[in-house]
């Protein structure tokens, strides 16, 4: 097939990936605008692709793994890496970034119409959204998400994904080596390390630090839990109850803390409310 035909076949083969990608583009454009969205997507995709190409040849940074090539001719590849695989990283990282923003962006209690009248009004100053704590928390949420994604993807022959990759030496976490999660942390760190300084240099009036950003940030959080829910549903559907319960137990505490945060607890949230 030629490239356009392969791209169309890829969409048909992995529609959920492009569904999440479309949701990411919609959510990110509303929060950070199209220019930043393009930068975020391009940087993360290139970093992820480079890391995947490196790992399938050197074992760095994800550890050794290989794609089976079972879908060659049915979907688009970049050398030996399926295009859809590296394309997943931008929306996964963006959703994780929004989770970090929801926890760490500043807010003011007095901006709520009345006590208990809905979620807090998050502000969007550059110093907060590009801070080191936001980056570190986003990395953590990113790796947390893969703790559910990779084990169920490894069992792809039991659902419609198919057996597209394998580890020569299965790891300790439901067959996934711990190095894989370290690699995901590396991808997130490199991507955010390149994007966040760029964000600071792309200051524009439409990203006013005083504009309430709660709804736009929560769209990204919704994407995070949509991805998580999809993977947990598949996990339970194929009978991996222990894996599914492990994923639920890992993600339940942050979900509860997020709800408390959106109600304004703890603290007054005024720290870091600067341009």
What would you say about this model in short?
By secondary structure, the protein is mainly alpha-helical. The chain is built from eight helices and four strands, in the order ααβββαααβααα.
Task: Give short descriptive properties of this protein.
two-stranded antiparallel ribbon; 4 strands; 275 residues; disordered C terminus; mainly alpha; 3% strand
What this model shows, in words?
This protein has a two-stranded antiparallel sheet with strand order 1-4. A two-stranded antiparallel ribbon has the order 2-3. The C terminus is likely disordered. The protein is mainly alpha-helical. The protein contains eight helices and four strands. The protein has one domain.
Lay out the secondary structure.
Layout: H1 3-13, H2 15-58, E1 66-67, E2 77-78, E3 81-82, H3 83-104, H4 126-129, H5 132-154, E4 165-166, H6 178-201, H7 214-237, H8 241-262
Antiparallel strand pairs: 1-4, 2-3
